[in-house]
Amino acid sequence: MFGYIIINKGDMKFKEFDIYHSYYCGLCRVLKEKYGLAGQLSLSYDMTFLIMILSSLYEPDTRLGETKCVAHPFEKHVVRTNEFTEYAADMNVLFTYYKCRDDWEDDKKPSRLAYAELLKKAYRSICSRYGEKARKIDSLLREISQEERKQNQDIDHMAGIFGNIMGEMMAVREDEWQEELHSMGSFLGKFIYLLDAYEDIEEDIRKKRYNPLIKRFDNPDFEEEIKKILTLMMAGCCKEFEKLPVIDNVEILRNILYSGIWYRYELVSQKRQKERENGKGKQKVSDA
To answer: How far apart are CA 42 and CA 93, in angstroms?
Structure first.
């Protein structure tokens, strides 16, 4: 479920992109410093959004620096780091560990099991450090795995579990913004879970893997239904976001929430539309 919370670079000013990229590079640096190459390999754009929204809301002391890396070996670029970079790095490793375990359960890929083993020590340290929050996230992730094994087709329930996970992650403190951040994370998590299922549905049917949308896939209104649900989820997410007194980098955050996050949906939707126009149609559940 990584790779959905991204920017729409085409609608972003150069200065805004540089700021966004500096937070991303800061996350990369912290992952390497705290967890070595194994941690750095877990880097994703998704957590950059988390850093930016928490930084914009709480306005912590942010350190500016310059660095070179493998991706940009010939020139230095700006990095921004603060306490929320550390937090996002920890959450990134936590989620990556579970993603590896999940991939191992689904496909039995030795590489994913090996990567999980590399992250196990870091995972245990993170769970110990975050106490109750880590236990809640851990419990919810295990609940998802259990319900998936039961082939639970209740999309509201399944998406709701992941929504609670994202809510716990975003509500970093028990304060006046906890409710809005948790609610925003909940809507965002539901969107991500359903979009991930939407993107993978045909492959999951082919490989006989779990997907909460399988029973709906043969419905002629499937595409319209999914878009409607996703739109409602993001409308709720954006409504909670607009309640927050965010000023710094607000246009970058809006770029992500109103545009960037729809990129993968549009890509998959357009591909399926072209396949239907070319007469390929979609794979039926009964044909799997």
So the answer is: 7
